[in-house]
Automatic annotation (TrEMBL):
The keyword Transcription applies. Transmembrane segments: none annotated. Keywords: DNA-binding, Transcription, Transcription regulation. GO terms for molecular function: DNA-binding transcription factor activity; transcription cis-regulatory region binding. This is LacI family transcription regulator. Residues 13-70 form the HTH lacI-type domain. Pfam families: LacI, Peripla_BP_4. PROSITE patterns: HTH_LACI_2.
Length: 331
C-alpha cells in the first residue's frame, strides 16, 4: 500500500503509522483503506477513524476509502462484449463523456461475450464500490443484476434486455423490417427470398431482426425458409464459411446482421468474383461506400446512451424495456 508525505520526520506516512495512531492492527488498516473492511467485520466507527487519520496525515486515499465517507464512489462501470465494431466503440466513447459530464469516473471492461467473464467483471466492480453497473450487450444480464443486487448495487441493461433490471435497446424489429423491405423492393418480388446471415439465434436482438425480416417477406407475399436464416455467429470468418458451404446458390440479395459479418461477406464476394446487393443491420461509413450496399441500419447511439443515463435519475423500479428507433441509411 503506497503512502504520502506525512508528519513522521519528513518521510512518507505508512499504514503502520496510521495503525499506531488509531490503535488498530496494520492488517485492519490495510483492509479499511482497500475497501474490504466489511468482509473483515471491522466496525464502521473504526473504519471512519482510520480514514480520518489517514487524511489528516496526508495518506493517499483510494477510491474505496473515499466511497466510505460519502456512501458513493462516483464511479460508474460498463461491461462491454467487444470493441471490434464502430457501434460498441461509439457506445464506449459516449458513455465516458456522459459519465464525466455528471462528475462520475467511468470504468469499462470487455468480457468477450463470455458469461463467466461478465460475472467476474461485475464482482471486481463491486469491490470498487461502483455506484451502478451498465451491462452492455451482456450474454446473461440477469445474472449480473443478481450479483450486483446482493451487494446493494444497481444495474441497467443496454443493447440487450434483461428481465430483472431496466433495459434500453434499439428497436431491432422495425429496423430489420424496414431494411428487408428496401432490399426486396430493390431486387423485385420474383428474385426473393433474401439470405439472412450472422448473429446468434439465442440473442434477443437477432431474434427480433429475424422476425422483422420474416414479416417483410410476408408483406411482399413471400416466405423466407429456415434454410435462408444462417445464425452463424458474428465472427467474419464464420460468415464467409457459411457462404462457402451453402448447399444452394447464394440468393439474389443478403441481409447481413452486423458489420463484422459483413467483412466476411465482402471477402467472399471478392474471392468468388461475385457480387450481391446487401443490406446491413449496423452502420460503418466505409462499408456504406461499397457499391453493393443498398442500405444500412444505424443504431442511435446518442439516444441509447442518453436514455440509459436518464434512467440513473429514476428510483429503482420495474424491469421495463425502452426501445429506441433506428435510422435507415441509404446513402
Amino acid at each position: 500500500m503506497s503512502g504520502s508525505q506525512g508528519k513522521f520526520g519528513g518521510r512518507r506516512t505508512t499504514i503502520y503509522d496510521i495503525a499506531q495512531i488509531a490503535g488498530a492492527s496494520p492488517s485492519a488498516v490495510s483492509a479499511i483503506l482497500n475497501g474490504s473492511w466489511k468482509k473483515r467485520r471491522i466496525a464502521e466507527s473504526t473504519a471512519k477513524r482510520v480514514i480520518e487519520i489517514a487524511e489528516s496525515e496526508g495518506y493517499a486515499r483510494n477510491l474505496q476509502a473515499s466511497a466510505l465517507r460519502s456512501d458513493r464512489s462516483n464511479v460508474i462501470g460498463m461491461i462491454m462484449p467487444k470493441y471490434d465494431n464502430r457501434y460498441f466503440g461509439a457506445i464506449a466513447e459516449q458513455f465516458e463523456a456522459k459519465a464525466r459530464a455528471r462528475g462520475l469516473f467511468p470504468v469499462i471492461t470487455c468480457t468477450e461475450r463470455n458469461p463467466e467473464f461478465e460475472v467476474a467483471a461485475a464482482r471486481e466492480m463491486i469491490g470498487y464500490r461502483v455506484d451502478c453497473i451498465i451491462a452492455t450487450g451482456a450474454t446473461d444480464p440477469d445474472r449480473i443484476t443478481r450479483t450486483a443486487a446482493a451487494a446493494g448495487i444497481r444495474t441497467l441493461n443496454l443493447d440487450l434486455p434483461g428481465r430483472e433490471a431496466p433495459s434500453v435497446i434499439s428497436d431491432n424489429y422495425s429496423g430489420a423490417r424496414d431494411l428487408a423491405l428496401l432490399l426486396l423492393d430493390k431486387i423485385g418480388p420474383t428474385r426473393g427470398p433474401l439470405l439472412f446471415l450472422g448473429g446468434r439465434g439465442s440473442d434477443h436482438n437477432t431474434a427480433e431482426r429475424i422476425r422483422g425480416v420474416r414479416d417483410a417477406h410476408e408483406a411482399r407475399g413471400l416466405v423466407i425458409p429456415d434454410s435462408h436464416v444462417l445464425t452463424c455467429g458474428y465472427a467474419s470468418y464464420k460468415a464467409q464459411r457459411a457462404l462457402d458451404t451453402l448447399a444452394f446458390d447464394v440468393p439474389a440479395a443478403l441481409f447481413v446482421n452486423s458489420t463484422i459479418s459483413l467483412e466476411g461477406v465482402a471477402r467472399w464476394m471478392r474471392s468468388k468474383g461475385q457480387t450481391r446487393p446487401f443490406g446491413c443491420f449496423d452502420w460503418d461509413p466505409f462499408a456504406a461506400l461499397l457499391e453493393e450496399n443498398v442500405g444500412m441500419v444505424k443504431q442511435d447511439v446518442t439516444a441509447l446512451v442518453s436514455t440509459i443515463f436518464d434512467r440513473l435519475d429514476d428510483p429503482p423500479g420495474q424491469a421495463d424495456v425502452t426501445q429506441i428507433p433506428c435510422i435507415l441509411c441509404t446513402e
